[in-house]
């Protein structure tokens, strides 16, 4: 399943913008085509294995000036079946990130089954 990710960046001088995505699994998008400043740009990626990945993205204008990296942590399940308990754990961790250290071993065990 392809997962879409959308970025929007505005350039102070109104220059067109290109994006670069690192997917956290050793692959990247390379620089995209240039888009209008402020336009939404969506890239998709499919992970081949279960895990938590750190997505990184940055922008570059037509003059070559690059932004800082922005990061997003995503978790990819091994199977496509929806487990209500797993969904509950994911939402609990989203609301209370400190619980991740306690619940991650349980989550990992359940995700492998």
Can you describe this structure?
21% of the residues lie in helices and 35% in strands. By secondary structure, the protein is of the alpha+beta class. The chain has two domains: 1-76, Immunoglobulins (Immunoglobulin-like), CATH 2.60.40; 79-113, no CATH class. A four-stranded antiparallel β-sheet has the order 3-2-5-6, with no helix packed on it. Strands 1-4 form a two-stranded antiparallel ribbon. Strand 2 and strand 3 form a beta hairpin. The protein is elongated. It starts with a strand and ends with a helix.
User: What is the residue-mean pLDDT, rounded to a whole number?
Assistant: 83
Span of the ends, CA to CA? 19 Å
CATH topology of the largest domain: Immunoglobulin-like
Structural class: alpha+beta
Considering the protein shown, what is the CATH homologous superfamily of the largest domain?
A: Immunoglobulins
| SSE series | EEEEEEHH
Largest sheet: 4 strands, antiparallel
Strand content: 35-45%
Uncertain residue ranges: none
Fraction of residues in H or I helices:
10-25%
Number of helices: 2
Kindly report the spatial arrangement of strands forming the biggest sheet: 3-2-5-6
Radius of gyration: 17 Å
CATH class of the largest domain: Mainly Beta
